[in-house]
Amino acid sequence: MSGFVPPPYPYDRLHRLLPVADAFAGGAVDLSIGTPFDPPPDTVVAALAGSGTERSYPPSMGTPGLRTAAADWMQRRFGVDVPIDQVAAAVGTKEFVATLPQWMRLRTPDRDTVLYPAISYPTYAMGATLAGCRAVAVPLRDDGTVDLDAIADEDIERALLLWVNSPGNPTGALDDLGAAAAWGRAHEVPVFSDECYVEFTWDGPGRTILEHGLDGVIAVHSLSKRSNLAGVRAGFYAGDAELVAYLRGVRQHAGLMVPGPAQAAAVAAFDDDEHVEVQRDRYLSRLDLMASVLSSWSGIAVKRPGGAFYLWIPVDDGWEFTERLAAAGGAIVSPGEFYGEQGTGFVRVAVVQPDDRIELVAERLSAAH
Asked: How far apart are CA 45 and CA 262, in angstroms?
């Protein structure tokens, strides 16, 4: 007998390049994974350590304090009013993305297709696979927006849900969330909008799909990027009343709970906007520095993205460029094929390391040029 065999985790395929990059004085600089390295605010760490909530089971839907803090943040940030009963906690949004198709398939068993952007976070497709669903990639236009007109009628009829992601990982492109919401309502397909990079929107203000109404849509938000709290595993989802109520119920039965101390830390993080401005300045400075250095070194015009903290660079061969960058600058980056077949002619550079590590790569590449 043979069953599902998990494919290699994409980033594990980069391990062979570590000895090459580690040969430099100062060692390898890992720019492959979007994991934060900057510190969270002291107030958040204090809340995590001193809440006294570690003794009891936390509410799966999230404490009233967490849901209120999330709703208040959405009102401040986007001017949208979401009742707290239409906000619920997630154990980090990767968990939410990966498990969503199985919960939705239980709700709508006659549908089996997860639609997702053709260049995107791999977990959208993997979540479908783990649920025994079809994962169908939606092509992207040249501007990075999903081409909703390219979805086949038969896929629409079978669609369980549509994922959109803006600012997008890995491209940094800003999608038309209003168009996605309208498409979903027209075809009666729930639309889930992954907005974890919204605080790092460079071209215009940050946007949420909830600005276009709550019916038929869910926005997914995370503290991992916004507040450098990836290790705390705290996020939330909000939007359509029936969808939130359904997911809240099934997730409670599954025992999915954000730990109490993490929920206390999340309240402190969502209540504080000042630290986000500091982090925005850091990422913007690093993007500009790396774009300039990589442009000079490679001869490719590397552009700042519309959002997020990634450079998405067009190259002839993603793996060849990745290997060459490891050898010349001791930096590990991600070949674009990790994010879908449409990404094979690109690499992604995550400017997440502290300034001194980013500057170290810049010095190495300047010396190699």
From this structure: 10
